[in-house]
Transport permease protein (Amycolatopsis oliviviridis), 257 residues
Amino acid sequence: MTPNPWRVFWGLLEHDLLITRKQLGGVLAQVLMQPLLMLLVFGKVLGALGYTPPGYARLLLPGLVALNAFFAAAQNASFPLAMEFATRTIENRLRAPVPLGWIVVERIFAAASRGLVTAVLMVPVGALVLGDLSWRTAGIPAAFGYTALGALAGGAVGTTIGSLVAPARIGITFSLVMPPLLFTGSAQFPFPELDAVPWFRALCALNPMTYVSEGLRGALTPRIAHLPAWLCVTGLAVALLVFTPASLWTFRRRAIT
């Protein structure tokens, strides 16, 4: 009898979530440090010195939550996957009695779960640093939806990179690709206010993280300039429609070589 693909999918996902739980301390230390320092320096220290405008930390924190959702998922998809291909331990997963697409989607969901956890944990860290979030509580469900979509998009991007790049080059590739994504993801500034630099605005529009940052600002801090909700959802949907098939193509190409 052919196993139910859903049961196999959930079995693989439960295995990866168990590993995530065991490694949670290291994962959090790895992915929370940079956003925490950015919030502390740009949100508190420079504000106290008068170099950033009042309320800048309130603008910055939703962007850092978006950064954690997207980058933690991308990082935790790309590096382990590259190592599994290098050591051929991926073959254990390829023997699962499901089509290859199920394995790829499971990896995206597993990576997204890490991104979602680190994004959610950024909220109490931000509250501890800033003291008062002043968020619109009615927007929390929508904010959670944007965060989940951003984590899935990051997982798809990371799976594409992890199955495309050779293990010896994954570190340098990540260091070359991720900083531009970080600084064009509208985490530190509102996208609608980039009219003065149209070339940079165009770069930010191509970055899926922009739509997570803007969606979170619209849901939690609506008084700050932000993109409309429909455009944020559309941008994230397009990212998933592009990178999910791309991750499947690169994974299949790598798996059969």
Q: What stands out?
A: Residues 5-255 form one domain.
